[in-house]
Structure prediction request, 357 residues.
Amino acid sequence: MSGPLLLSIESSCDETGIAVVEGGRRIMSNVVASQVALHAPTGGIVPELAARAHLRWIVPTLDEAWAAAGIRWRDLDGIAVTYGPGLAGSLLVGINFAKALSWVHDMPLVGVNHLEGHVYAAWLLDPGEDETSKVEPVFPLVALVVSGGHTFLAEMTDHLTYRLLGTTVDDAAGEAFDKVGRLLGLGYPGGPAIQKAAEGAVRRDVRFPRAWMGDSYDLSFSGLKTAARRIVADARAEEGIDPDDAETPLGEATTAELAWGFQDAVVDVLATKAARAAREIGARSIILGGGVAANACLRERLAGEAQELGVPLIVPRPGLCTDNGAMIGAAGARRFEAGERAALDLDARPSLPLARR
Ligand code: KG4
Ligand code: ZN
Prediction:
């Protein structure tokens, strides 16, 4: 395969991810150290703990990724690292680690936007796949990125070229999943837990509100979150649970029904807007990425919309939708080939944007 062989490092949030990726497409190794167990007791990420856990796990993660790739330092062409957006303390661990490796091994460094990583995961090959057997993203395309911190729709007319179509005006979709998961007593992270609970829903007629935001491609999830709080409180009252009793959970059937209703509302808005955008710009493909893209219901619904439009939907396997190092190697290779290099003063950019309107 042509293209650079990169070591890629991701530490923007609560996963320490290190991968070796060839040509931005072929994954030679991809190791993720998850902090889910660490943050579960608080039901959300504690930034200080996240940064310390990255420090604790980054060397073992590299060791494992390195051993699995079976390469030598001189085989590598460079190192790619996420420099934003994300938590400052977490980003700095990955950045400083990458800089040290770059200096010691005299290896070029390239800084990668985490959101661009979620987009470029669509170009990664699955095991056994090659460039001829994979369904390729074709420009112009619509990219829908739905993660814990960001949710946006963008048009790409070429590699590394984005026009923002719409973004969330308040919460990210993943954040809403996590908050409603907590409301339903499903634990952290809420996204996978809500999906699992929703699969068991027998009654599927509860309706959560959708914020359509007029004709715009912008999104909003805070109203849905507020509505969920009211719907859950009403359901608890109906089941005769004392409002002061936070310990008693809703019955399993009601929990499943409400999880389904919430998920349906989020998926409906995301899939409808992505399909409308694809139609309007004459997209030749749709790509979906970010942690929430691991959601089976969203994948299925958007695949249906894409099929109706006659364009392929490209969505990475779930493990490449949630944060990982391989996606940073995918985007990093494009930046590397475009001649971009980061200096040793590369700094964390917690609010780094990807695209403009
Ligand atoms: O992209 P990601 O791994 O981290 C960020 O960059 O934020 O996304 C994490 C988010 C969390 O909010 C998590 O609840 C959500 O992705 N998520 C899901 C699923 N798996 C992860 N949401 C819905 N359904 C899932 N299966
Ligand atoms: Zn992410």
Summary: The radius of gyration is 21 Å.
